[in-house]
Amino acid sequence: MSEISRESTVMDSRVPVRNYNTENWLRSVREVKNELRKLADLIAEEEDDFCEIEVFDRLSSTVNALRRLKFDLEEKNSKKSSKPKRPLSEKLESLSVPECFLCPISSEIMTDPVMLATGQTYDRPYIQTWLDADHRTCPKTQQVLPHVILTPNYLVRSMIEQWCESQGLDYPSRTSTVHGDGIMPHEIKYLNILLDKLSGHFQSQQREAARELRALTKKKHSHRVFLGEPRTIALLTPLLQSDDAETQEHAVTTFFNLSIHQGNKVLIAKEGAIEPVVKVLRSGHTMEARENAAATLFSLSALDENKAKIGASGGIPALVELLQDGKSRGKKDAASALFNVCISHENRGAAVKTGLVAVLFKMIANEKDGMKDESLSILALLAGNHEGAAAIAEVPWFIPILMAFIKRTTTTSSATASASSTSHSTENAVVILAALCGHDPSIVKELRSNDGYIKALVSLSMGSSPSRSRRKAAAIVERINKQIRSVTI
Predict the structure, then answer these.
(1) pLDDT tens digits for 302-332?
(2) In terms of DSSP bridges, do strands 121-123 and 86-87 run parallel, antiparallel, or are they unpaired?
């Protein structure tokens, strides 16, 4: 047998004789790989360096088949991925949606399933709205909730995702349903509707919109952030001068809620809303509106640039007035705002001119007000101003009043709230007295003439009080000793 015929016999015994249009009959990658293995074995076992031309033809045809399969697969995947999915919001009457995928509140497929303390699963935006309305029961079981923590239900979410994929539905990712400020799309829509109502001509709509904005900005940080834009301030500001008392109250309280967010403090001042807020403080329709205006100024005054604007807008006299005739909460907000505003040196002179010093000493003497700490804190600031020190020195019996705080002994632990309050009051009292001693030598003379005062000051300077109190007391004692030496000489 010739060499050629021997090789043909071997080849035919290993590979079935077929119509070698391999591209037609190789229908899967597995078949292609099997054919390539057979051809590779055949080539490797040849005894010389040559193979039948038919082997190479089959090899070439098989490689082409592999390329074709790969191309067909890529094209198929491309068509599959480019096929648009139906949005989840599309009406699905023709589909039987598993009941566990539907939110019990909205009856829609849940996009962000979360569990309540009762174990019931709801869509986050709807159950959050329920909780924001001060409901503390499970909507489905009516059980009282021990807490309002929402726990993501990843199992249900995964099941919904798989079902949507099988139905050709586009299931939104968690990030695609939330605005950059952590606010849901349906919330954005609702807030914009409320803003549109503010610009309407019907007072009842404005009142209702302002009331709702007040409630929403109180409860959610994301609402305060989203509404922090010039449009909101421009729509709310005219309502501060509304003839309707309820609308005015809702508007100024919304300003307070917005001002809690740091970025909005700058925006509110920049848009010129401080002066209208001051007007509400001075002559608001209700005491609550005035008190909430004071709270707004207190919040805004946290920024140094706003302190000067509040002073220039007439805020200081209006705050002092509320400090005198307001209720307990209003007095505290007014005092806190005055403290912040008086940190700015340029506002201290204006505060003294309003008669603030006399008002503060009157509040210290009035046990019912419970405003001793706040009053002493403001006086400690004013004492650092020449006009403030002069005004304090004109108050009758100011030395006995201040020394009463310094002589007070603490019987409770320094860790208690009572001891902490006493320590703070004592510190402010000795700071005021030290400033007055530097202002007027006759005050040092009066202290020198009272052994009880000297003993209390020496004890404070050597005791365990805060270092600032000890330093100020020691400075007063040194002034007394210096004056004694000068008299002796």
Answers:
(1) 999 999 999 999 999 999 999 999 999 999 9
(2) unpaired
